Amino acid sequence: MFLHAHLSSSARVGTPTRVSEAIGCILLCVENRSINNPRKKLETESCRTGNPMDDCWRCDPNWEANRKMLADCSIGFGRNAVGGRDGELYVVTDPEDDDPVNPIPGTLRHAVIQEEPLWIIFDHDMVIHLQDELIMNSYKTIDGRGANVHIAYGPCITIQNVSNIIIHGINIHDCIPGGNAMVRDSPYHYGWRTISDGDGISIFGSSHVWIDHCTLSNCYDGLIDAINGSTSITISNNYMEHHNEVMLMGHSDEFIADRNMQVTIAFNYFGEGLVQRMPRCRHGYFHVVNNLYSGWEMYAIGGSANPTINSQRNIFIASDSDSLKEVTKRGGPSGEEEWKKWNWRSDGDMMLNGAFFKPSGEEASVSYIRASSMVARPASVLTTLNVSTGALNCQIGYVC
């Protein structure tokens, strides 16, 4: 029997009045539409929310015994990420990370470098202070449900040249660069690592990756970056706050291998204190769908090098500053003459407090097929997003 540690609630920064009022107005409209619709009322009263990933598993009071069912719940471009579904459970018992070359059994580093598929869980609350990057091997799930797990105050997670990774229910914050050190990446190999960027999660040359229900903040570089030919990625149900450059998708304007990148960004809450890159995209195809943005200090969605961006049924709540109303920002040496041909659209987005999205390129849906990965839900499903994203308070014997 696995030990269980009570999960304390993740800290949340208070939602500003303007956000609360805007969400309240949406809720009122939804309730008014539901009064004379018994079926809608019944659905509202159940544990299902309209979020297809959460509705797949969160109503199960036996989630702890059925952990691996989570692997069948992803949608979007990362939907085929199976993680460690076909392997054994590995229980992390020790938060220490004293030796990145010779990690001891029971530590997170020892778990993620193994060759075989593993579903990694934690037997108690812990703060893991990594001595260097946590370099993951393929077919791994890091599942924080049932414990309050933080990876913080050191280098964080690197997903490099691997596939089939699921990271769920982890608090990742205060990450810093590592490197100029030897680090093990499998039981049979270790090597010299140069200085890392200091990302919360760095995805490099990898595919079939799902990052779900994590809480991320205050890292040295990006919270989640995907570069160098990475693709088939879903970033969902995360709570992000207090950070500058949130997500970079694409290595550089010159790195054309990223033209095949496909990323779904869905049901995330972009919270307080975020500045830019939610995401910033290069080349590739990006489905930004059913997210809630509660302000930005520069811009929300940006890009260069002709990415296709399909923004659908998000809620964008601009700050009160008159200079911070535009959702979008484009970069390129030729200015508008260059980017006016890029396919960026806003389809059913809700713009509040003066927010606006500047579209470009084609309007026809056929132009966005490669940037379409799931059916966009009505904006009404986003009204409680700020309290159901991030690492969850899952307790054994109860729905999560």
TrEMBL record:
Q: What cofactor is needed?
A: Ca(2+)
- What does the entry's cofactor note say about binding and number? Binds 1 Ca(2+) ion. Required for its activity.
Question: What does the record give as the reaction this protein catalyses?
Answer: Eliminative cleavage of (1->4)-alpha-D-galacturonan to give oligosaccharides with 4-deoxy-alpha-D-galact-4-enuronosyl groups at their non-reducing ends
The keyword Calcium is assigned to this record:
yes
Q: Which UniProt keywords apply?
A: Calcium, Lyase, Metal-binding, Signal
Q: Is Calcium tagged as a keyword?
A: yes
| Domain Pectate lyase: start-end pairs | 125-322
Select a single GO molecular function from the record's annotations and give it.
Answer: metal ion binding
EC number(s) per entry: 4.2.2.2
GO BP terms in the entry: pectin catabolic process
Pathways involved: Glycan metabolism; pectin degradation; 2-dehydro-3-deoxy-D-gluconate from pectin: step 2/5
SMART domains for the chain = Amb_all
Q: Name one Pfam family in it.
A: Pectate_lyase_4
Which superkingdom? Answer: Eukaryota
Family listed: Belongs to the polysaccharide lyase 1 family.
Supply the name of the protein: Pectate lyase
